[in-house]
Amino acid sequence: KYEQHGSLSHMRVLVTGGSGLVGRAIQHVVKEEGGAKEGEEWIFLSSKDVDLMKEEETRAVFEKHRPTHVIHLAAMVGGLFKNMTSNLDFWRNNVHINDNVLQAALHVDAVKVVSCLSTCIFPNDTTFPIDESMIHNGPPHHSNFGYAYAKRMIDVHNRACFQQHGRLFTAVIPTNVFGPHDNFSISDGHVLPGLIHKTHNAQKEGTPLTVYGSGAPRRQFIYSLDLARLFLWVLRDYEEVEPIILSVGEEDEVSIKEAAEAVVEALGFKGEVLYDCSKADGQFKKTASNAKLRRYRPDFTFTPFKQALKDTCDWFVANYDSARK
């Protein structure tokens, strides 16, 4: 399929953020599930290999590997509470990283780049479900506007690259991703891995589990391995510059309370569960439509939430000492 971009007999894929949650999932699918095709070469970069904040370093690593295709996952990320206090850092660091990566890809004549956006880029004041056409329809939620605008600018950059150079630079928009190799930090991780770590601690210490907020907000969660499988499809077969939302359906949205109860069940926690309503809830919901994905991939089966969550909890317990937390 990718041969239509030129006479490419060989596909060399460079993955930035290769050691993160999604990067590790893509590595797993490529190496353990036979996801790589013949004639494909995969290179996974981590922050140990290159500082993508530095233009010269970024360009040098792209010149070294000369990828034909790029999956751009690297970003400065954090949960709600870290975002609320560091909007300037999230804006500047991510703008630098994204500009360096996309320009380096252009410089080495990469034919396709797939970047990873986030549902937090969508307007706060909107109708639901959100779809791909609504990204720029108003300001994002104030809690993480720095990160959200930096991610939105990837879409602007992609459209400009296509207009000026005819390059197929595009992006995916996953909903809340979780799975093995996540950042399970309680202070600045995302909601699900934070809950898993907290519940594990409460179980060990024989204390109640305290969930921040009311438990009422609703989220769509996508298992990192499902996302990885879809990423490979986008890389090979999705031919639009406009982003595509990668998510479970609206009917699979769960409340934070339901998510907490599922974690409690998966870890066999028997203690008391409390909700600290003095803590911020963040956006109540950001329901995304996966209708476009379903038009392209009506056959795709998502891992059931409880099964994926159980696998993630089991991974965390088994890898407790080495897990990011």
From TrEMBL:
<protein>
    <recommendedName>
        <fullName>GDP-L-fucose synthase</fullName>
        <ecNumber>1.1.1.271</ecNumber>
    </recommendedName>
</protein>
<dbReference type="GO" id="GO:0016853">
    <property type="term" value="F:isomerase activity"/>
</dbReference>
<dbReference type="GO" id="GO:0042351">
    <property type="term" value="P:'de novo' GDP-L-fucose biosynthetic process"/>
</dbReference>
<keyword id="KW-0413">Isomerase</keyword>
<comment type="similarity">
    <text>Belongs to the NAD(P)-dependent epimerase/dehydratase family. Fucose synthase subfamily.</text>
</comment>
<feature type="domain" description="NAD-dependent epimerase/dehydratase">
    <location>
        <begin position="13"/>
        <end position="249"/>
    </location>
</feature>
<dbReference type="InterPro" id="IPR001509">
    <property type="entry name" value="Epimerase_deHydtase"/>
</dbReference>
<comment type="function">
    <text>Catalyzes the two-step NADP-dependent conversion of GDP-4-dehydro-6-deoxy-D-mannose to GDP-fucose, involving an epimerase and a reductase reaction.</text>
</comment>
<dbReference type="Pfam" id="PF01370">
    <property type="entry name" value="Epimerase"/>
</dbReference>
<keyword id="KW-0560">Oxidoreductase</keyword>
<keyword id="KW-0521">NADP</keyword>
<dbReference type="InterPro" id="IPR036291">
    <property type="entry name" value="NAD(P)-bd_dom_sf"/>
</dbReference>
<comment type="pathway">
    <text>Nucleotide-sugar biosynthesis; GDP-L-fucose biosynthesis via de novo pathway; GDP-L-fucose from GDP-alpha-D-mannose: step 2/2.</text>
</comment>
<dbReference type="GO" id="GO:0050577">
    <property type="term" value="F:GDP-L-fucose synthase activity"/>
</dbReference>
<dbReference type="InterPro" id="IPR028614">
    <property type="entry name" value="GDP_fucose/colitose_synth"/>
</dbReference>
